[in-house]
Specification:
The chain is an alpha+beta fold. The strands form 2 sheets. A 4-stranded antiparallel β-sheet has the order 1-8-3-6. Strands 2-7-4-5 form a 4-stranded antiparallel β-sheet, with no helix packed on it. α3 packs across α4.
């Protein structure tokens, strides 16, 4: 029997839960945990070549891609080098889950348009402070994400025959 006091969600909320559950940082959450983020979400449409944020900017939001494509680039001497392409159902700006972090890459829209859901840093921190379980789940996902990135980095390093010094990364 259903609990008459449990919160019911609209079809739009369920659609958002389905979307969020595909994203790394939300995949282990229950609907009622994901629901905490709904009031904090802002929908924004960007155009081709628009910069979402620059490297070294303060990390002020987590971005979820509803539609479109974004490249994450790093500055290498006088040019930008693409490190990752992000598409529907993926997130970027993940270091906004950390306190006082700065962006490590520049995010640029490469599709004609992109629809993004923006979750501000302050809202994430507010949810974390009142929901340690949500914070633990997201931080675990973040650690897994960074671990996968490290594995890719080391694989790339091995395949490049050491054209760069990996030791510098840890100094």
């Amino acid at each position: 029997m259903r609990n008459p006091f449990s919160k019911t969600y609209s079809p739009e909320d369920h659609e958002m839960f389905d979307f969020l559950s595909q994203i790394k940082f939300f995949e282990s959450m229950k609907n009622k945990e994901m629901a905490r983020f709904l009031p904090a979400m802002h929908h924004r449409t960007y155009k081709r070549d628009e910069v979402v944020f620059f490297s070294k900017d303060p990390s002020q939001a987590l971005y979820l891609v509803k539609r479109g494509q974004i490249t994450l680039t790093i500055d290498v001497r006088d040019t930008f080098e693409t490190i990752l392409e992000i598409k529907k159902g993926e997130a970027f700006g993940e270091n906004s889950l950390l306190e006082n972090a700065k962006r490590t890459y520049t995010a640029i829209i490469v599709s004609e348009e992109a629809d993004l859901i923006v979750i501000p840093y302050y809202a994430i921190q507010e949810i974390f402070s009142s929901n340690p379980k949500i914070k633990a789940k997201m931080m675990t996902s973040l650690a897994e994400y960074y671990n996968e990135n490290n594995q890719r980095l080391f694989k790339s390093y091995r395949e490049s025959f050491g054209f760069f010094s990996l030791r510098q990364m840890f100094e």
